[in-house]
Amino acid sequence: MSDVATVPDLEFAPEPPPKGPALWLRHNLFATPFSGVLSVAAIALSIFAYKGLLTFVMDPTRRWDAVTFNMKLLMVHAYPADQLWRVWLTLGIVVFLLAASFGVWKIGGMAEPRAVGRVLMGMGAVFILGGVLAPVSKNPQIAWIALGAAMIAAGYALRAFTGERAKDPTIPIMGIVGILIVIVLGLIWTIEIPVPAKIIDGQIVTDSAAAAAIRGNQIQVLRPIAESTTLPWTIIAAVGAISYMLFRFIASRGESGTLKKVFTILWVLSFPVLVLVLLRNPVWDLDKGLSVHLPALVIFGVFGTAVLWFVARPGSGEAARVVGGVLLVAAFVTFLFPMPFIIRLFMLALALFALAGPTFGGEGSKGLITGWLIVASLLTFFTFTISTVSGIDVPVAFFFGGLGLTIIIAFGAVVLSLPLGLILALGRTSTMPIFRLLSTAYIEVIRGVPLITWLLIAILMLPVALPAGIHIGGVVRAIAAMALFNAAYLAENVRGGLQSVPVGQKEAAKALSLSKLQETVFITLPQALRAVLPALVGQVIATFKDTSLVTIIGLFDFLHIARAVIPAQSQPFNFIGSVKETLMFAALVYWMFTFVFSRVSLRIEKKLGVGER
To answer: What is d(CA 169, CA 336) in angstroms, rounded to the nearest whole number?
Structure first.
């Protein structure tokens, strides 16, 4: 036997794969000679565009004071200054609802340190490049480069110090958002913005009244942001932070189902209440309410309760559907005769409730009747509110303008187009020829004509077609035109989602003895909406951008003020010719809104697993 001992085979850990900036560049940008040429060309073009943008923005002859001086005009147009507290209160309520909803639904996950570090390093590189390319004085260039270097160092340290845990999601996203909000608040309290001024008798005058009264040499000066702006923003940010932490704590302590229902109802009611009541400040006409709206509520409350009690009974059968169909026909007939508008709304709403009664009634008939009474009360309140005049004294037809009007039109068009688009999609996929043909005809006609044409029809031709005594404001007509137009596109998106639902799902619903309505509401429609969620969000983004078209019909929306109103100002300060600056600011605001929409969409898609399962 050999005296040499047998050495066992040793297992060694695999070598880590090579990594580093050089390897990343070689694999992603310079893998082949052709890709290297394209990468160099793209980088050179990006640097050239970046330098051009910085040159434009930092040109000392640019009239950025036209934007900062007219910020109220851009946001709310002619809304009275003594009523601006209504705007701040509205914004505060929206922020409260948003932050509290984030807390109740526990929105805000964790981010990976390497991802946060990558973002910081990328932003640092952008700042350093901007400091090198920017045509500014020496000190700002050094500040930009120093800030960029600090961000790169922070990003690198974050990735290096976390080590193996760099890939673990350990950084709270809402914490990052909070830090960003604190930074923004610090900036608005410390930075100075350009404002127009005149030199009068050797004194710099920035007051518009004094400048308008006396001629003088116009200049630009830097002034801090007014406390009337910085203080409300600080209070609103504090309210949002406290609301999020409070409701996140409440939701983590127990069942959050009740809170979710409450905030869902608050979100539904927030838009009409804030716009029609808080911002509009209606002048209530109690005599009209007591003579028309209250009697209509009482009559339809009693009549609707009796109808819904009948159609919701288990033994009603086909008679319940016949009643619902008759009420629907009667609701459409009411539009042919002169009568208070609230009667038409009551008939249409009652018909929809009656059609839903056989499916959602039965043991829950009390809930159906309660829902009808609540809806009838809300319809009465809002129709009565709309019929009153606004207490906001403005020199234009609508009480609001600027970015606020853009948001109102976009939100109203989206909210109205969603249910109509769902109905059209279901009608086009229906097995009943009449509904399929009507839905197809509507979709093809609406989609075949540009949106601007429908806006012009709504503004110029609709008033001629309306019966005598009925007047619809220009903003309402614009919202209706955009809602009807977007509904056609939404219908096609939803139809694609309906066709993607497997046939086995529908067969399973039939095996469970579900009605066609139950199958649609509980089985096919949720899956279809989930499948087309990216397209739906894209349509929402397109709707928000399409609101800029109302500038052509003379509404004082955000783009109209930036494009036509401010560049035409000659008093108290001369802003004639500042259209490039105002349009650049408008483009930035539109981009900020659409970027937020897209990021929220990506988060929702990731949570729902769209495209993954």
So the answer is: 62
Q: Distance (Å, rounded) from C-alpha 430 to C-alpha 432? A: 5
Query: Domain check: are 405 and 492 in the same one?
Result: yes
User: What are the Cα distances from residue 298, in Å, to 16, 254, 292, 357, 379?
Assistant: 78, 40, 10, 21, 12
For every residue of 465-477, DSSP letters joined together read: HSPTT----HHHH
What is the rounded average pLDDT of the residues 207-219? Answer: 75
Burial class (CB in 10 A: 0-12, 13-18, 19+), 538: middle
Read off the pTM.
0.87
pLDDT tens digit string along 392-417? 988 888 888 999 999 999 999 999 99
Residues 206 and 221 reside in one and the same domain = yes
The secondary structure of 398-414 as a DSSP string is SS--HHHHHHHHHHHHH
Token look-up 């082949």 returns 32
What mean pLDDT is predicted for residues 13-26?
A: 74
Instruction: Identify whether residues 23 and 134 lie together within a single domain.
Output: no
Identify which of 546, 414, 399 has the alpha carbon closest to the alpha carbon of residue 480: 414
Q: What is the DSSP letter of 168?
A: S
pLDDT of residue 545: 92
Token pair 């001024």 is found at 197
The last residue of one of the domains, among 369, 387, 405, is 387
Is 373 found in the same domain as 464? Answer: no
Other C-beta atoms within 10 Å of 370: how many?
13
Give just the sign of the alpha carbon dihedral 54, 59, 62, 68: positive
Nearest CA to 412 among 354, 317, 479? 479
Q: What is the CATH number of the domain that holds 448?
A: 1.10.3720.10
**Residue 148 and residue 125 in contact, taking contact as beta carbons nearer than 8 Å:** yes
Q: In this structure, is residue 4 part of a structural domain? A: no
Cα angle for residues 564, 583, 132 (degrees, 5° grid):
155
Q: How many CB atoms lie within 10 A of CB 51?
A: 16
Phi and psi at 584, nearest 5°, equal -65, -40
The half-sphere exposure of 82 on its side-chain side, counting CA atoms within 13 A, is 4
**Token pair of 114 as six digits:** 């390497």
Lowest mean pLDDT among 222-231, 315-324, 495-504, 565-574: 315-324
How many of the other CB atoms lie within 10 Å of CB of 374?
11
Q: Which two tokens stand for residue 486?
A: 């977007």
Q: Which two tokens stand for residue 153?
A: 């160092």
* β strands within 239-284, DSSP E: 282-283
304: containing domain: 285-387
Q: Which of 107, 241, 199 is nearest to 599 (CA)?
A: 107
pLDDT of 274 > 90? The answer is: yes
CB atoms within 10 A of CB 41: 10
CA distances from residue 613 to 109, 373, 503, 527, 609 in whole angstroms, order as listed:
21, 42, 17, 12, 6
Domain match, 401 and 546 both: yes
| The total number of structural domains that make up the chain | 4
